[in-house]
Structure formats: structure tokens, C-alpha cells
Design a protein that fits this description.
The protein has 401 residues and is α/β, with parallel strands linked by helices. It has 16 helices and 11 strands. The termini are far apart. The structure holds NADP nicotinamide-adenine-dinucleotide phosphate.
């Protein structure tokens, strides 16, 4: 079934990659409110078979896929007698994205989302794009594929969704600057001594957004804003030096675009991911959500401050990687994934994350990325290099974390 992009209110079949995660479950929540309009083709997860099976039954999905083959039998059992097709393995996740759904939510975490997102792009689908690591590790190649296959990439990150909604794509020359807002994360007011001893629990306790573990830690280091800066550069074709970051702890203004005449346009709302997800799901129309309404009279105050580069060096690392170009952002993102996972596993300290990313970026050559094979190679090399650095930390005592 092909649905015209402009046909607001008409059925739109959907596939949700990463349906069991934070963005995935919120997408399921919206889709389940209007199952007639949003029939589900495929749902995918890594290994959370219990939730995946429950979602597949509830949404009457045609296909449910797990990336981890070791849980295939369990998923098959849970869905036996339903007629829902079951598959497992990384290739099966990419094959799920190839199924003819009009709209695909890319909400896998990390570079594992590259192949499935690409599979959806290559068949010209509307891709709701949350999985920022994919654009960081292969931005230029990804945008070339989007153009070559006539796919539509709709940003789901709240900041990029905000920019998308106020960005003048017909007159890009009139855009002076993008301003990405940042909550500042749980350590916004903390010093480096506090961060050195920070636990996993403290790092994932985000003040305004309820998100998956990896992005929560990225928010605490502010690497998340660095990844978003790179994402914005590729999505909107704006050079790095014209993308600024502004700390705004209340997360009400989701980002801003400054035009050459001095006008600044912004998108506002309460911090609820269902709003940007719904924007992509209903695009080019809008659909209702249960998100709490913004009441500016009740909002005590909206405050702003510049990010502190000394306490949060990850932003500088991301900028430097984008300036360096080639495989540098790929290395940055891969090393960060390895380091964040090691921190979540309590194998390294919080400040080891940025150190491991910086050392990996310094140690490896920033080769040009001519094709996806080069992306995979740079990604794998960075993961090996960063993992060795994690091992070196592991030799010291981290038992108290
Ligand atoms: N959460 C937010 O509010 C938010 C906001 C903006 C952008 N984002 C971005 O959206 C993406 C998803 O974030 P999230 O917070 O939703 O993450 P999450 O809660 O950790 O969920 C990740 C999803 O990806 C699946 N997954 C993990 N590893 C996989 C693999 N190797 N292969 C296939 N699937 C895999 C997980 O399955 P299991 O459940 O089985 O592990 C889960 O469904 C990230 O790139 C993040 O930066 C998130």
C-alpha cells in the first residue's frame, strides 16, 4: 500500500525499529491510539521478547524480530498460534525495515541501527529518525542515500524536530544560525570532583526527560549535545560554526533558528517525546497527543546559560571531530558507545568516558569515508581501541561504583 505523503488522515502503515525502548514504547503508545489509521507491519527489539511479543499481539503486527538469535525460540513460543511471523538476527532486523511500511520509526540505540535505517531509506520510506548515532557515524553517506532514493527523513530528537518545524528549507541562505537547547543534564551544577565519583544511578537520573540509559548518560556528559550538533549539521546542511548550544534547564524551548534579519523562531512544548514523535507520525498533518499542555503563565521562569566547556569537554570533542571530518565523528560515536556501556556496567568511572573518547580520537587516523565499508571499518577499529582503554581502567579498583 502506498500512501501519499500529503494525504492527512489517511492510513499509514508503520514499522517500529527498537519498539521496546523509550522512544519505541512511546511510538507504540501513539500508534495504539489509532490502529485503523496506523496498521503495524513490523516491530523489532534486541532481546526484550516479553515486551515485543505483548506489543506484537496488541498491535496485530505482521512480523516481530529480535536482533539477538539466542532469544528466538522464546519469542516464537510467546507468539505461537497468533499467525505473527517471527525472525531473529541483525540481518532479520534490516529485512524487517525492507518490508513495505509507509513509515518507519528508527529508534534503535547506537550504530546497530545503521543497516536497518539504511534499508528503510533505500526503499524511499518516510523515516522518523531518532537513532542519532547513525547520522553521526555515516552522516554524509546517509544524506546521499536519502537524496538518491527519495526518502523523507523526519527528525524525532526534540531539538531537531523543533528546528525542522521552523526551518525555511526553500531559503536556506536566510538562516544565520541554529541554536540547540540543552537541559544541561543531571550534573549541570556539579563540579568535576562530584562527576569523578558519580554513579550510574546519578548519571541516568535526568532532570527533565525520561529516556533510555545510553542517551541519559550522554546527557550527563553533554556528549548528547555534541552528537546532536553533528546530527544537525547533516540534517540541515548548516556548517558547524553556525550551530550554537544554549543551556536551558526547563526544556520548554526545544531549539531555535536565527534568520539573517535578526528574527529568531522557536518551537516550544512540555518535555514529552510523544510530541515530536507525533509530529513525525502525522506529518505533514498533526495528530493529537495526551502530552501535558504548556502553560507559560504557570512556568515559573525560563532561564538560559552558556555551556561550560571546562566541566563538559565532550561538546568540544564533538565539534573538533566534525571539523576534522572523514571518519572522526564515526570514531567519536563508536568510542563513546563503548565507554558509556562500560560505565553502565560499572567498569569505568564517569570521567573515564570523555577521556577514552578523546584518547581514541587522538590515537586513530581520521580517514575519509568513501563508502559504508569504510564506515564499518572505522567503527570497528574505534570500538577495539576504546575497549582496550576500558580494559586498562578495569585493572584499577572500580568496585565502589
Ligand atoms: N529516549 C529519548 O527520549 C530519546 C530522545 C531523542 C533521541 N533518542 C535517540 O533514540 C534512540 C533510541 O533511544 P532510547 O532512549 O529509546 O533507547 P533504549 O530505551 O535503550 O531503546 C533502544 C531500543 O533499541 C533496541 N536495541 C538495542 N540494541 C540493539 C541492537 N544491537 N540491534 C537491534 N536493536 C537493538 C532495544 O531493544 P531491547 O529493549 O530488546 O534492548 C530497544 O528497543 C537513541 O539513538 C537515542 O539517542 C532518544
Amino acid at each position: 500500500m502506498v500512501v501519499t505523503a500529503g494525504a492527512a488522515g489517511e492510513p499509514r502503515s508503520v514499522t517500529i525499529l527498537g519498539s521496546t525502548g523509550s522512544v519505541g514504547t512511546q511510538t507504540v503508545d501513539l500508534v495504539a491510539r489509532d490502529p485503523e489509521r496506523f496498521p503495524v507491519v513490523a516491530l523489532t527489539a534486541n532481546r526484550n521478547v516479553a515486551l515485543l511479543a505483548e506489543q506484537a499481539r496488541r498491535l496485530r503486527a505482521r512480523l516481530a524480530v529480535v536482533a539477538d538469535p539466542s532469544v528466538y525460540a522464546e519469542l516464537k513460543d510467546l507468539l505461537s498460534g497468533t499467525g505473527i511471523e517471527v525472525a531473529a538476527g541483525a540481518e532479520a532486523v534490516a529485512a524487517a525495515a525492507e518490508q513495505p511500511a509507509d513509515w518507519v520509526m528508527a529508534a534503535i540505540v547506537g550504530a546497530a541501527g545503521l543497516e536497518p535505517t539504511l534499508a528503510a531509506v533505500r526503499r524511499g520510506a518516510i523515516v522518523a529518525f531518532a537513532n542519532k548515532e547513525v547520522l553521526v557515524c555515516a552522516g554524509a553517506l546517509m544524506m546521499e542515500e536519502v537524496a538518491a532514493h527519495g526518502a523523507t527523513l523526519l527528525p524525532v530528537d526534540s531539538e531537531h524536530s523543533a528546528i525542522y518545524q521552523v526551518f525555511d528549507f526553500d531559503r536556506i541562505d536566510s538562516v544565520a544560525r541554529l541554536i540547540l537547547t540543552a537541559s544541561g543534564g543531571p550534573f549541570r551544577t556539579r563540579d568535576r570532583a562530584f562527576m569523578a565519583a558519580a554513579t550510574r544511578e546519578q548519571a541516568v537520573a535526568h532532570p527533565t526527560w525520561d529516556m533510555g540509559a545510553k542517551i541519559s548518560v550522554d546527557s550527563a556528559t553533554m556528549m548528547n549535545k555534541g552528537l546532536e550538533l553533528i546530527e544537525a549539521h547533516f540534517l540541515f546542511a548548516i556548517p558547524e560554526e553556525r550551530i550554537d548550544v544554549l543551556v536551558h534547564p526547563q526544556s520548554v524551548i526545544h531549539s531555535l533558528v536565527e534568520y539573517v534579519d535578526g528574527s529568531v523562531l522557536a518551537q516550544l512544548g512540555t518535555p514529552d517525546m510523544r510530541t515530536p514523535i507525533a509530529y513525525a507520525l502525522g506529518w505533514p498533518g498533526r495528530i493529537a497527543t495526551p502530552a501535558q499542555r504548556l502553560d507559560l503563565a504557570k512556568a515559573a521562569s525560563l532561564t538560559f546559560e552558556a555551556p561550560d566547556p571546562d566541566r563538559f569537554p565532550a561538546l568540544r570533542l564533538a565539534r573538533a571531530a566534525l571539523q576534522s571530518g572523514g571518519g572522526a565523528p564515526t570514531i567519536l560515536s563508536a568510542a563513546n558507545e563503548v565507554a558509556v556501556q562500560a560505565f553502565l556496567d560499572r567498569r569505568i568511572g564517569f570521567l573515564d568516558i570523555e577521556r577514552i573518547v578523546e584518547e581514541t580520537l587522538t590515537a586513530l587516523p581520521h580517514r575519509p569515508l568513501r563508502d559504508l565499508a569504510a564506515v564499518r571499518e572505522a567503527d570497528a577499529e574505534a570500538r577495539r581501541n576504546a575497549a582496550a582503554r576500558v580494559m586498562a581502567v578495569g585493572a584499577t579498583a572500580v568496585g565502589s561504583r
